[in-house]
What we know:
With about 100 residues, the protein is mostly helical. The chain folds into two domains: about 15-65, no CATH class; about 70-100. It has helices spanning about 5-10, 30-45, 55-65, 70-100, and strands at about 15-20, 20-25. The chain has a two-stranded antiparallel sheet. Helix 3 crosses helix 4. The longest helix has about 30 residues, at about 70-100. The chain is extended, with a radius of gyration of 19 Å. Keywords: Membrane, Transmembrane, Transmembrane helix.
Amino acid sequence: MAEKETPAEATQRRTISILGREIRLPESRNKRIALGVGLTILGLLGFLPILGFWMIPVGLLLLSYEFASIRRYRRRGIVRWKRWRKGRDEEERSGDSQSK
Length: 100
């Protein structure tokens, strides 16, 4: 019989958020690494009908939860994205006020 997990164990489960959806990751570190490497390598074959280039960023995102070097690039990307969005939003606001 399977034991129910306590609330503390449930919050410790690794999840990944992609496009607003929470996806649970495998509990085993080796499985997470294998899944990330597999997605990245198969994503390089994205020109084939079933596979896609979308697999590369998803695989790297999975690997970023395990390796600090990849995590650094992910965090830098997030910071750059937010700065770009902030600058773009400010340009839109200043453009609206100038046109009036």
